[in-house]
């Protein structure tokens, strides 16, 4: 479901080169990424999919430098994240916005304070300017009237919206979404995707979405990265997944894409006949 | 992480105990190094902008003001016990006049700093560890790092500074209340002369003794915040801690025990060096 035909030619903003990451003690290591290489195109939406425990969230943490790979390199605009430390890493992170799985809002801060935090910490804006900017964002995300509430008083969907407001506050170039719709009902899921589409259209950021919400999230994708047993497969068209001959990809497609997979496989079967 | 894709240990069986020992030593060294960097980063955070003055005041209220009642009752009962015990021991030698000296020196040099540190560890240190641990497992600390906000300056430094200010003051309160407790038991209950109680205290307590107590209270404050916050901060990297809420509860218990033991060990070391 490629939305643009020139994805393949887009300049990559993030590149993984032979990245290996494993966990556990020496005696029994679990390899999550085994020498994987792929790239994420600038200004587009890349979806990282795969079963539980295949390293989707780890991939996001590696991009942000929150984890270090065992070997290999991760480049963000040519800068090798694996070699950055301290101030250099912080400087790189200023280009990112992150929506965490559980929104990761600060429990002791109100909605307003949560959204204002990056502005207070990272800019020299006056309190009046911060208030105006935060209130404008809260209005856009339909959170007006909730600014004095604490995260514990919000529904799951509202928490995600506040998390998105905070992630977008400094207008980042790249936004990482870690399971943005987990635990939400279908209506709220749709609302989050609508918000995502609107904000990406407005701000033009590169989006990387880790999600289980398949095939819904594939509708948004320009590139799909499937993680399985430490290896990756990259697709620029959902049809490539549907018609893949690799058994585990067919199994994945069958389980997650249901009717869409059956229809497409059926068509293929007919034409073969 | 899938069990289906994992590497197996290829160490020969005879060498496995050594490999295991090596693993433990490496883990302990890594942990110590991690904790050292943690303390250094928290101290450096005090010089980084923007300084969180509001958070410092909040922590002063929590660690300092919030502990006053606990400190008051602990000090009063400790002082009264010291008064009674001291009287009982000194009476055998007809040296009741030394009661003020014995009570005040014991409190100022030993019991005041130690019991204050243990009380603050139990009340505020455990809360600190649990709070930071929960922030870690709910990705709030990751969120700070992703916003390019230094989590040490933002979270740990205000707690550290608040403890460095509060604990010596709480120790001073402990000493005063403890001496008053000794007075209640020794003078009002047992009939020791009020003049000899205070005179003995003024003649025997020197600036050096007070300085020793103050140095101890600063070191204990540093230790308790370092250990309690550090354990919470690294909750996911502590071997055997488990996951989720269970890991926070285990690590909180571990932090309180470790912090208390460290206070006692450092008390001996400081006494041996500075006395």
Largest interface, C-beta within 8 A:
A-B, 41 and 28 residues
Helix content of chain A: 25-40%
Characterize the biggest β-sheet of chain B: none
Global shape of chain B? elongated
**Please, what is the oligomeric state?**
heterodimer
Nearest-integer average pLDDT of chain A:
82
Shape of chain A: globular
Residues in helices of chain B, as a percent range: over 70%
State the low-pLDDT regions of chain B, or none.
none
Order of helices and strands of chain B: HHHHHHHHH
* Tally of contiguous helical segments of chain A: 8
Strand coverage percent of chain A: 15-25%
What count of helical segments of chain B does DSSP give?
Answer: 9
Word description of this protein:
- The complex is a heterodimer of chains A (about 270) and B (about 280).
- Chain A is built from 8 helices and 10 strands.
- Chain A is of the alpha/beta class and about 270 residues long.
- A 6-stranded mixed sheet of chain A has the order 6-7-8-3-9-10, with helices on both faces. Chain A has a 4-stranded antiparallel sheet with strand order 2-1-4-5, covered by helices on one side.
- In chain A, β7, α6 and β8 form a beta-alpha-beta unit.
- The longest helix of chain A is centred in the last third of the chain and has 26 residues.
- The N terminus and C terminus of chain A are likely disordered.
- Chain B is mostly helical.
- Chain B has one domain.
- Chain B is about 80% helix and about 0% strand.
- Chain B is built from 9 helices and no strands.
- In chain B, α3 packs parallel to α6.
- The longest helix of chain B has about 40 residues.
- Chain B is elongated, with a radius of gyration of 23 Å.
- Chain B starts with 15 loop residues before the first helix and ends with a helix.
- The model of chain B has no long low-confidence stretch (mean pLDDT about 90).
- Classes of the chains: A alpha/beta (about 270), B mainly alpha (about 280).
């Amino acid at each position: 479901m490629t939305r643009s035909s020139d994805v393949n030619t887009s300049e990559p903003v993030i590149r993984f080169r032979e990245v290996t990451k494993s966990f556990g003690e020496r005696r029994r290591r679990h390899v999550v990424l085994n020498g994987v290489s792929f790239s994420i195109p600038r200004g587009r939406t890349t979806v990282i999919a795969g079963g539980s425990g295949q390293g989707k969230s780890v991939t996001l943490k590696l991009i942000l430098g929150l984890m270090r790979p065992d070997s290999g390199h991760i480049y963000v605009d040519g800068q090798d994240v694996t070699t950055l430390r301290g101030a250099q890493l912080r400087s790189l992170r200023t280009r990112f916005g992150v929506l965490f799985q559980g929104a990761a809002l600060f429990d002791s801060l109100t909605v307003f304070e949560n959204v204002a935090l990056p502005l207070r910490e990272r800019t020299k804006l006056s309190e009046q300017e911060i208030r105006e900017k935060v209130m404008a964002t809260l209005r856009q995300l339909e959170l007006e009237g909730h600014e004095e509430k604490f995260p514990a008083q919000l529904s799951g969907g509202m928490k995600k919206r506040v998390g998105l407001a905070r992630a977008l506050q400094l207008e980042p170039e790249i936004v990482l979404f870690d399971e943005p719709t987990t635990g939400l009902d279908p209506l709220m899921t749709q609302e989050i995707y609508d918000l995502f589409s609107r904000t990406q259209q407005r701000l033009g950021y590169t989006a990387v979405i880790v999600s289980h919400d398949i095939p819904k999230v594939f509708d948004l994708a320009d590139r799909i990265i499937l993680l399985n047993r430490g290896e990756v497969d990259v697709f620029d068209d959902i049809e490539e997944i549907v018609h893949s001959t690799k058994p585990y990809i067919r199994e994945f497609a069958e389980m997650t894409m249901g009717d869409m997979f059956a229809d497409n496989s059926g068509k293929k079967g007919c034409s073969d006949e | 992480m899938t069990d289906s894709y994992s590497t197996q240990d290829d160490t020969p069986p005879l060498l496995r105990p050594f490999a295991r020992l090596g693993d433990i030593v490496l883990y302990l060294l890594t942990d110590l190094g991690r904790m050292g960097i943690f303390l250094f980063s928290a101290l450096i955070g005090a010089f980084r902008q923007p300084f969180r003055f509001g958070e410092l005041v909040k922590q002063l209220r929590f660690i300092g003001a919030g502990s006053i009642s606990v400190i008051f009752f602990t000090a009063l009962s400790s002082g009264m016990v010291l008064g009674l015990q001291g009287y009982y021991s000194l009476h055998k030698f007809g040296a009741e006049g030394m009661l003020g000296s014995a009570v005040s020196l014991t409190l100022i040099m030993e019991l005041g700093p130690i019991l204050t540190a243990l009380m603050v560890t139990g009340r505020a240190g455990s809360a600190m560890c649990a709070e930071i641990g929960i922030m870690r497992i709910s990705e709030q600390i990751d969120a700070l790092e992703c916003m390019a906000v230094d989590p040490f300056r933002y979270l740990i430094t205000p707690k550290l500074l608040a403890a460095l200010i509060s604990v010596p003051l709480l120790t001073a309160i402990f000493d005063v209340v403890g001496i008053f407790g000794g007075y209640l038991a020794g003078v009002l209950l047992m009939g020791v002369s009020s003049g000899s109680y205070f005179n003995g205290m003024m003649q025997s307590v020197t600036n050096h003794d007070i300085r020793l107590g103050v140095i101890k209270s600063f070191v204990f404050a540093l230790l308790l915040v370092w250990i309690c916050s550090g354990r919470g901060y690294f909750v996911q990297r502590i071997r055997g801690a488990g996951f989720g809420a269970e890991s926070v509860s285990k690590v909180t218990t571990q932090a309180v025990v470790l912090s208390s033991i460290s206070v006692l060990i450092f008390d001996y070391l400081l006494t041996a060096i500075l006395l």
